[in-house]
């Protein structure tokens, strides 16, 4: 009897231990370890220079000699976007006139978990700006070429645009530097019988302006603010969807600046 009771007692202890463990494993909820929050690489540049101050007086005098000190500031958001335009008319009376129009726009993208890195968003917008410049209605003799030594990527789009006021020579330089896109629109025309300006000469001036604007962006963010790493991540990152990027509003303003005819006609 003692032996039987001892066996019964051992059997009960063993059963309750294993059964209890199984019950606890089936019914209990194990606290989940906290998952890491989604992260995205921070954008290299955190600010923008004042739009009407991105070019030196010397450069402005070369591009828009009659409007070097009369830049018109466009729609801007501090640190996010900005633009400035200059309109120059050198009236030589019966000998005709030379018209020049310049617009510089800047757009900075911030890294976001839903949209991706600022560099990736800027890379996508850079391509959109080039396509906008290449698709202007009425453009003739359109050409596109890469521009070296300007930001991380730069493209010059040039074409002729015939208007009743004269033949306009349009130059658009689109540049991306880290998470910022700089677009320089520059055009010229000979009015009232004056000869049209040299397209090559205008292109060189537009490229000069783009390089200087890029330098102003870098200076506004401090020396050494940018590194090679963000640019590499930009090329390898998945571009954000159209709905996720701010390109809709930005493209609207950029498209207006990319087409010189309306502003040129109005000013002349």
TrEMBL record:
Residues 1-13 have a biased composition (Low complexity). Residues 1-39, 64-93, 213-268 are annotated as: Disordered. Residues 82-93 have a biased composition (Polar residues). It comes from the Bacteria. This is DUF3558 family protein.
């Amino acid at each position: 009897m003692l032996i039987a009771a001892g066996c019964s007692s051992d059997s009960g202890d063993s059963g309750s231990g294993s059964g209890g463990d199984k019950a606890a494993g089936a019914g209990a909820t194990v606290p989940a370890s906290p998952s890491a929050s989604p992260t995205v690489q921070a954008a290299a540049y955190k600010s923008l220079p004042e739009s009407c101050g991105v070019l030196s007086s010397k450069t402005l005098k070369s591009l828009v000699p009659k409007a070097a000190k009369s830049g018109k500031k466009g729609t801007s958001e501090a640190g996010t976007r900005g633009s400035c335009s200059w309109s120059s008319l050198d009236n030589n009376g019966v000998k005709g006139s030379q018209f020049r129009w310049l617009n510089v726009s800047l757009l900075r993208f911030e890294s976001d978990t839903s949209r991706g890195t600022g560099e990736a968003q800027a890379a996508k917008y850079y391509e959109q700006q080039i396509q906008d410049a290449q698709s202007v209605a009425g453009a003739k003799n359109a050409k596109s070429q890469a521009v070296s030594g300007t930001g991380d990527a730069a493209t010059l789009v040039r074409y002729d645009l015939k208007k009743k006021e004269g033949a306009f020579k349009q130059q658009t330089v689109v540049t991306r530097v880290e998470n910022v896109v700089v677009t320089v629109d520059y055009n010229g025309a000979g009015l009232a019988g004056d000869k049209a300006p040299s397209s090559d000469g205008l292109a060189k001036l537009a490229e000069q302006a783009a390089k200087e604007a890029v330098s102003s962006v870098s200076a506004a963010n401090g020396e050494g603010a940018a590194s090679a790493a963000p640019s590499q991540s930009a090329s390898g990152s998945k571009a954000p969807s159209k709905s996720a990027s701010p390109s809709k509003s930005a493209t609207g303003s950029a498209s207006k600046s990319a087409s010189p005819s309306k502003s040129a006609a109005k000013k002349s």
